[in-house]
Design goal:
This protein is an alpha+beta fold. The protein folds into two domains: 3-48; 51-148, Alpha-Beta Plaits, CATH 3.30.70.1060. Helix content is 46%, strand content 21%. It is built from six helices and four strands; from the N terminus they run ααβαββααβα. The protein has a four-stranded antiparallel beta sheet. Strand 2 (90-95) and strand 3 (104-112) form a beta hairpin. It is globular. Mean pLDDT is 77; it is low at 19-24, 26-31 and 33-38.
């Protein structure tokens, strides 16, 4: 509410029809502004509900051969090709670190409807199916990944 109106009410100089009319106008203005922004918030919530962002952390699986480079691992080319099936839902991906630091090899970030859909997609990855890779799927509550891509 306007500070001038609040001061006038406290001072007792706001009485009668004029006071009621002023309060009604202030209330309409306040609620009107809220109503103007409400559809925008609903539209943003609906867009966010359509797809969420998930990060998949890939690690060496039981069938990973430590004496071979990652590009020499069984089914690794199929794993890379499978990543391309995400199409526009693919947001980012690649190798992490030096590949010798620990078991972690890479990460893929993509959009899916929910965690179940994300896990289902990962389960069909040839690298996962052949145990060359193992994966952890996490919901990534990123604010706006496309802003980082310049879109």
């Amino acid at each position: 509410m306007n500070t001038h109106i609040t001061k006038a009410i406290r001072a007792g100089s706001f009485t009668g029809r004029r006071a009621i009319l002023t309060l009604v106008i202030a209330a309409i203005a306040a609620f009107g502004a809220a109503a103007t922004f409400a559809p925008l918030a609903v539209a943003q919530d609906a867009a966010a509900a359509k797809a969420s962002v998930f990060a998949v952390i890939y690690e060496r699986g039981p069938a990973y051969e430590d004496n071979k480079n990652i590009t020499e691992q069984a089914n690794i080319k199929d794993h890379v090709a499978y990543g391309q099936t995400l199409g526009d839902k693919f947001l980012a991906g690649g190798l992490l670190g030096t590949l010798t630091d620990d078991k972690v090899l890479g990460m893929v970030v993509f959009e899916a409807e929910n965690i179940e859909a994300a896990k289902q997609w990962v389960s069909q990855d040839p690298g996962i199916q052949n145990n060359v890779l193992s994966a952890t799927v996490r919901h990534w509550q990123v604010t706006n990944i496309k802003a980082f891509q310049g879109k």
